[in-house]
Amino acid sequence: MLKAVLFDFDGTLADTTDAILNSSRSVIAKMSLPQVSDDTIKKHIGLPLTEMFHDIYKALDDSEVMHICELYRQALDSEYYRLIKPFPGVSESLAWMKERELRLGIVTSRHLKSTVFLSEMLGIKDYFDTMVGVDIVKNPKPAPDTVQVCLERFRIEPSEALVVGDTRFDLQMGHNAGCKVCGVTYGNHTREMLEMEKPEYLVDDLRELCKLIQK
What is the C-alpha to C-alpha distance for residues 103 and 25, in angstroms, rounded to an integer? Predict the structure, then answer.
């Protein structure tokens, strides 16, 4: 029996792609780093910032990557957060799930403080019973740590939770935790990339998930 739905944030609940791309472009220019394509950046969305920039710029050392991440956060927090908006159908889908007494959580590679701030800005914070950011777990996605924290807080089994995300890292995380997963195709990874992870469900709109749950 389904008791909880655990959501990724970026690309699943919130359309943050333009904000991420603009913040990345800002720091890449400021640090005079080699330019990369938008597709390259988008393929790394879902990972912690440190892993994202380490993977894109493999020659950088840890201190340089940490500096880049700090500049990125400054750019996002001071300017580009205004570009963030909820995807269509998110608020009504979350309301529908709460009405059916499902426990709702956020499992994200974003820091908890940022997640709380942005979810409040988008008007969806109160739908969630808990949020788990990358800064409170030992291992980030695709490790199962953030999901496991939610399961422990809710006191439920993996079989009683569904993990929803827009990247293969989200789906891997959910499966690694022993949960069923649902991919959303409107985010950062393509349908083909999501299908490779063999999700139990795949939807083009979050409202489709409500119909699947109802069945």
Answer: 37
Per-residue pLDDT reduced to its tens digit, 29-61: 999 999 999 999 999 998 899 999 999 999 999
Domain that holds residue 195: 4-15+86-214
pLDDT at 46: 87
Label residues 61-83 b or e (16+ Cβ within 10 Å = b): eeeebeebbebbeebbeeebbeb
pLDDT in tens, 96-123: 999 999 999 999 999 999 999 999 999 9
Decide if 2 contacts 160 (C-beta within 8 A). yes
Which amino acid, 109? S
The answer to whether the CB of 181 falls within 8 A of the CB of 209 is no
Residue 16 burial (CB count, 10 A): 24
Both 98 and 166 in a single domain?
yes
CATH number at residue 197: 3.40.50.1000
The mean pLDDT value for 61-68 works out to 96
- Asked if residue 106 and residue 32 are part of one domain, the reply reads no
Q: Which two tokens stand for residue 62?
A: 């840890």
| pLDDT recorded at residue 55 | 95
Residues 26 and 98 in one domain: no
